[in-house]
Design a protein that fits this description.
The protein is an alpha/beta fold and 381 residues long. The chain has 9 helices and 15 strands. The radius of gyration is 21 Å and the shape is globular.
């Protein structure tokens, strides 16, 4: 069993994660916050015995066996790499840092230390997506040709200016929601993008509360296309201009049929049927009034349900494995690891580059980080 969990972050995702951890019986023993006052506030809310504004104090806490990283993306690589280097398991929020260099640092640390290193891409654990993947693997839709994803929700920007407003700090709909979508497409189809073309826009640069010298630079609309490795095509539209509403539809079209997940319900039109039928109805209920779930509105319901199931699978893996090395069995084996996060980061970076250039951009995965000094490269002299 895990001795205890150390949580990094004090935002809504941190509160949701703490509530999810406690709901499955895991003990949160330490909390990091950007300030001592903020850390104390959240620690008091959840009865967490230790809180601090110093990263090392949580990492070196003797009861912390796994760290849950929910702080802003610019701290992900630093915390995750350091945690793995001192023998702590890691569950990291998305995305894996600000760019490919951050993601590579995390991957290199995970390769060197044989510890649990997972990303919180919870959609993989939603029953509708799990069943969709099985149906695709069995060939029930034939050869996958198209994947169409449409997400509509309200603004991700809050009343106060924070990292979510700044593209250089990891804000924006592509990072926040797009990273999940890129991951779930690869999870379902077992195909990776080979080239992408995208467009990112920031239509709302100021609000009533964020104005004057403050400007919002993070994207509030994004659409992109991907050519996948086995010939399939994917289109993704992320729209944050539908206030008070969240909808998500993932459609897979194959040569023999099609599957569609709307919210967390699975529909299918298979075996030549002319009508679409409901295959899986979402029955999981989450009590939004329970302790710590007040901020759950900030995380769409399918993602919230997937996060709960992911955390439950992590607990199960530690209960099953005495030596803590048996992480290649279900259900935790389905979770996205740091290698998956690196691929997602390359796609995100390519979409950004395409938005600037207006061209298709190839996805080139690097196995290790290149030195910034050209004289240290082969043939550099």
């Amino acid at each position: 069993m895990l001795e205890g969990i150390g949580v990094f972050g004090t935002g809504s995702l941190a509160r949701i994660s703490i509530a999810a951890l406690k709901s499955v019986g895991l003990k949160v023993v330490a909390l990091w916050g950007p300030t001592q006052l903020k850390a104390k506030e959240i620690a008091s809310m959840f009865d967490i015995p230790f809180y601090t504004d110093k990263i090392d104090d949580v990492l070196l806490h003797k009861e912390v066996d796994l760290v849950c990283i929910t702080n802003p993306p610019h701290l992900h690589a630093q915390v995750a790499s350091k945690a793995l280097s001192i023998g702590k398991h890691v569950l990291c929020g998305n995305p894996a840092g600000l760019n490919e260099h951050d993601a590579l640092k995390m991957v290199e640390a995970a390769r060197y230390y044989p510890l649990l290193s997972l990303m919180s891409h919870g959609l993989r654990f939603v029953p509708a997506f799990m069943q969709m993947k099985k149906a695709i693997q069995k060939g029930e839709v034939g050869e996958v040709n198209l994947c169409d994803v449409r997400v509509a929700c309200g603004s991700l920007v809050k009343e106060k200016f924070n990292w979510m407003c700044d593209e250089n700090m990891g804000g924006g709909v592509l990072n926040t929601i797009g990273s999940h979508i890129i991951d779930i497409i690869t999870f379902l189809t077992s195909q990776k993008a080979v080239k992408v073309r995208g467009m990112m826009k920031t239509f709302v640069t100021q609000t009533e509360r964020i104005n004057g010298i403050r400007h919002i630079t993070s994207d509030d609309f994004c659409c992109f296309q991907m050519e996948l490795s086995d010939g399939a095509c994917a289109t993704v539209t992320l729209n944050t201009h539908v206030p008070g509403h969240f909808s998500q539809e993932v459609l897979i079209v194959g040569s023999k049929g099609r599957l569609r997940v709307e919210g967390a319900d699975l529909y299918g039109q298979l075996c030549g049927n002319k009508t679409e039928t409901l295959m899986i109805s979402d029955t999981q209920r989450i009590n939004h009034q329970s302790d710590g779930m007040a901020g759950s509105a900030d995380l769409p319901l399918p993602y919230l349900k997937g996060l709960f199931k992911l955390i439950d699978s992590v607990k199960e893996s530690f209960e099953r494995s005495q030596e803590r090395r048996d992480w290649n069995t279900e259900p935790v084996a389905m979770a996205a690891n740091f290698e998956d996060a690196l691929y997602v980061q390359y796609v995100i970076d390519a979409v950004r580059q395409s938005s600037r250039s207006g061209n298709w951009e190839k996805i080139i995965i690097k196995n290790k980080e290149a030195s910034e000094n050209p004289f240290l490269q082969p043939g550099g002299l």
